Amino acid sequence: MTKHMQCLAENLKELMGEMSVSELAEKVKIPQPTLSRYLLCQRQITLDNLVILADFFNIDIDILIGRKDY
């Protein structure tokens, strides 16, 4: 697991708040098992999915993966 994967997982959990993984999966059209693996740091995110999530949460990719602070 890389530092960026861990930061992504932590930031996604924070951004999701009370939203479930299945709710987010439905909204962003990313399969629920894929999102779950991102949150568990078991799968490296694709560039396409990184952009989708950054756009959905209206957040800079660098912030999402921990290269910049909020």
What key phrases describe this protein's structure?
single chain; 70 residues; mainly alpha; 434 Repressor (Amino-terminal Domain)
Overview of the molecule:
This protein has 70 residues and is mostly helical. The chain has a single domain, classed as 434 Repressor (Amino-terminal Domain). Helix content is 64%, strand content 0%. It is built from five helices and no strands. The protein has helices at 3-16, 21-28, 32-39, 47-57, 61-64. The longest helix has 14 residues, at 3-16. The protein is globular, with a radius of gyration of 11 Å. It starts with a helix and ends in a 6-residue tail after the last helix. The mean pLDDT is 96.
SSE order and pairing:
Layout: H1 3-16, H2 21-28, H3 32-39, H4 47-57, H5 61-64
CATH topology: 434 Repressor (Amino-terminal Domain)
Main structural class: mainly alpha
**How many alpha or pi helices?**
5
Total number of strands: 0
Largest sheet: none
* Overall pLDDT metric: 96
CATH architecture: Orthogonal Bundle
How much is the radius of gyration in Å? 11 Å
SSE pattern: HHHHH
CATH class: Mainly Alpha
Q: Portion of residues in helices? A: 55-70%
Structural domains: how many:
1
Shape: globular
Percent range for β-strand residues: under 5%
Distance between the termini: 22 Å
CATH homologous superfamily, by name?
A: lambda repressor-like DNA-binding domains
